[in-house]
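Input.
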Amino acid sequence: MRIRFLLSLLALSISGFAGAQNLEKGKEINATCAGCHSDLGQGGSRGEYPRLAGQQVKYLESQLKAFRARTRVNIPMYPYTQERELPNEDIKDVSAYLASIELPTKWPVFKDTDDALTRLTLTERVMIIPRVTGNLPNGEAIYQKKCVTCHGKTGMGRGMFPMLVGQYTSYLKRQMEKYVKGERPHDEEDVGGMLNALKEEDMQDILAYITSIQEQQ
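Output.
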């Protein structure tokens, strides 16, 4: 009887958590985002548009609000993130929906009848980014010293800090360059910060390490 009661409480708890945001509404809102970020938030154009699926919900919320406030400069995002277009509740709903998506981490098994477009579409949904070159021991050492506190040992992020594993390497590299140039704030209020102390080769090594720790299930 006690076990049944505890299970009932657990079910109610899970139900309450899942119902905190309207995922169906978030899915509807994402139809607008899909033009660039794809229907399942897997990104597109080989990293021109980042992957959003499975990203930390608080991070997604904070970035959408930053676009809306124009504290993060991205001209294409302006018309979609103005308050009349994307109020706070919609930001929460679409962020929760995108965070709930689990992209496959195993390469698909194709049928003989699958055409090239089908194969490409299924492959692009896999959350495995091709390995990039770099000094893995150096990348690991820097990552564990400089990045692990915020982004986690497995690169999956936590709280307000984004998931890095599974993100397009070209996108990550472009964002690192923006941080260094002061075009996008990192964690620091002032221009500059942790990344400015790194050499270009060090940043490449970090990217190489991130692609080496992906799990393929």
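Residues 7 and 13 are 10 Å apart (CA to CA).
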